[in-house]
Amino acid sequence: MSNFMERFSEKMKEIQDMANPKEKPEDRLRDSFMNEITRFYEDGTEPEHASQDMRYYLHTHEQRLADKGIKIQRRFTTVKDATKGTRTKNKPPYTASLSFIECNASSQYTNVSTQKVMKKHKKSSSIFYTNILDRADSQNAEYECPNCGHHNTLSVFTNGCPMCGTRFQMKQLFPCVSNYYLLSQIVDRKSIDWLIPTVATLAVLGGIGTAIGVTINYWPQCDPHYMALFFGAGGGLLAGFFGFICLYLFFGFFFAVFMMSRLTATAISTADVASASLTKGSLAKAMSRYDPEFSYDLFEGKVISLFRAIAYSKDRTNMSVYRGDPNLPELDTLIDIDYRGAMKYLNSRIQDGDNLVLLVRVYFNTTHLIKGKIVQKKEDYNMTLVKKLTARENYGFSIHAVNCKACASSFDAMHVLKCPTCGAPYMLEEEDWVVYGLKK
Predict the structure, then answer these.
(1) Residues 292-313: pLDDT tens digits?
(2) Is the peptide bond before 292 cis (omega within 30 degrees of 0)?
(3) d(Cα 95, Cα 88) in Å, to the nearest integer?
(4) What is the DSSP string of 361-375?
(5) Of the candidates 243, 251, 244, 266, the residue with the CA atom closest to the CA atom of residue 191
(6) In 3-state terms, what secondary structure has residue 245?
(7) Which residues, listed in sequence order, are joined to residue 84 by a DSSP beta bridge?
(8) More confident residue, 29 or 157
(9) How far apart are the C-alpha atoms of 184 and 260, rounded to whole Å?
(10) CB-count exposure of residue 185 (10 Å: 0-12, 13-18, 19+)
(11) CA distance 111 to 325
(12) Average confidence (pLDDT) over 148-158
């Protein structure tokens, strides 16, 4: 009963958030990030509010595009009276928000050497989604460097200890965007907005035409003649009123048929994603048994970032985040990856006594460069993720000073497999999720 009341309370809070037009900090961060990601694909400026994993993915994507000789330009522009909202879930001391806004999105793929536009997507009506994670006290919390004892706030240690240079394994600085994706709307706003103005214009023209015709017809018969004007005005008003109703019903019927066909086509093309989204609760419940701090929003962003980092990596044999087959030729032609907004929970189990193994299927729209041509596909991948049962996800701000146990050297161990000084292995599974398998 308590769980039901908690879920009911969360849903009511979501409804209140959606109905409340007051701007929130998450709304400003979302809008800022939209501009930041546009600027990144323009000139390479790193998004200020991107999570650490996302920043790594963006840089590997930038390198893949440079290697392929392709430039991508993305533009996201908000529309007038845009549909927008923020759903927030509090899990003290953390806050996870899904913030979205209606926008026009466009993209362009250009061959850098020839400046030839290889593929162009014109403006389309879409919803821009961001997963935002925050912890109010994260940047002001005190931290002590384990190497030299220097005291300062966590935000100061972002790029390492300012006194001794010790590097740390950074996970998040808050607030941050852990994931973003774009979903097309079923029907463009313009295709809805035209209906009433068009019908009204036709009704007015019909009314004016009727008024003129009635006036001319009755003018010779009326005494005085100006009485024909009253008949004409009355006929015009009636014609306009009933004409508007009839035309609205007529055009509305065909518009409804059009909408149903679009909805049916969309339902068919997104049936896999819709089915996957139903497993979100099962995944959260399964993981919460092993880790009470589990957050689906953080995990979702982490999985997407891991996939992108692996897909764009030049050398998959030297990554702490990946233990699978390094030979993945189907990923080597990728130049762009768009998350379709759903991840399917398949199963989970305990292996070898202390390893938590999780299998999920992730859905993407992918863009490949194959034999000099842009090829776009819908693809899904099964990902096997593993971490130690003792690894607890601190999805606020988790910082680790990485000192090699063999030689005491300090290094940034997020995406390396061995100590760069002595070659001793670094086991990320003891701290976080590692991808053990990636299969189409």
Answers:
(1) 778 787 788 788 888 988 899 8
(2) no
(3) 7
(4) EEEEEEEEEETTEEE
(5) 251
(6) helix
(7) 101
(8) 29
(9) 16
(10) middle
(11) 31
(12) 70
Question: Tell me, what's the pLDDT at 138?
Answer: 59
Dihedral angle, C-alpha 385, 388, 391, 392, nearest 10 °: 60
Please give the helix or strand (H or E) that residue 159 lies within, else none.
none
Six token digits for residue 259: 């909408």
Per-residue pLDDT at 77: 86
DSSP state, residue 158: T
For residue 260, which phi and psi values (nearest 5 degrees)? -65, -40
Enumerate the H helices of 219-332 as residue ranges: 227-269, 271-277, 280-288, 296-312, 329-332
What token pair was written down for 49? 């509010």
DSSP β-bridge partners for residue 385: 358, 435
Q: Measure the CA–CA gap between 206 and 233, rounded to whole angstroms.
A: 12
Q: How far is CA 267 from CA 261, 275, 363, 417, in A?
A: 10, 11, 15, 43
Return the closest-CA partner of residue 60 out of 432, 337, 410. 337
| Consecutive H or E run containing 13 | helix 2-19
Q: Which two tokens stand for residue 260?
A: 């149903």
pLDDT digits (tens, 9 = 90+) for 249-306: 777 776 666 666 665 555 555 666 777 778 888 998 998 888 877 878 778 878 888 8
Bond into 93 cis (ω within 30): yes
| pTM (two decimals) | 0.70
Q: Do residues 127 and 103 lie in contact, with contact meaning Cβ atoms separated by under 8 Å?
A: yes
* 386: Cα within 13 Å, side-chain hemisphere: 19
Measure the CA–CA gap between 10 and 15, rounded to whole angstroms.
9
CA 264, CA 270: separation in Å to the nearest integer? 10
Per-residue model confidence (pLDDT) at position 137? 62
Here the tokens at position 255 are 């518009």
DSSP state of 105: E
Total Cβ atoms within 10 A of residue 428: 24
Number of helices and strands in the chain (H, E): 10, 13
Contacts of 303 (CB under 8 A, 6+ apart): 343, 360, 362, 383, 385, 433
Judged by average pLDDT, the poorest of 79-88, 146-155, 238-247 is 146-155
Instruction: DSSP letter for 45, please.
Output: P
Give SS3 for 360. Answer: strand
3 state SS of 355: strand
Give the range among 117-126, 133-142, 366-375, 414-423 with minimum mean pLDDT: 133-142
Q: Give the amino acid at 309.
A: A
- Tokens 């966590």 locate to 154
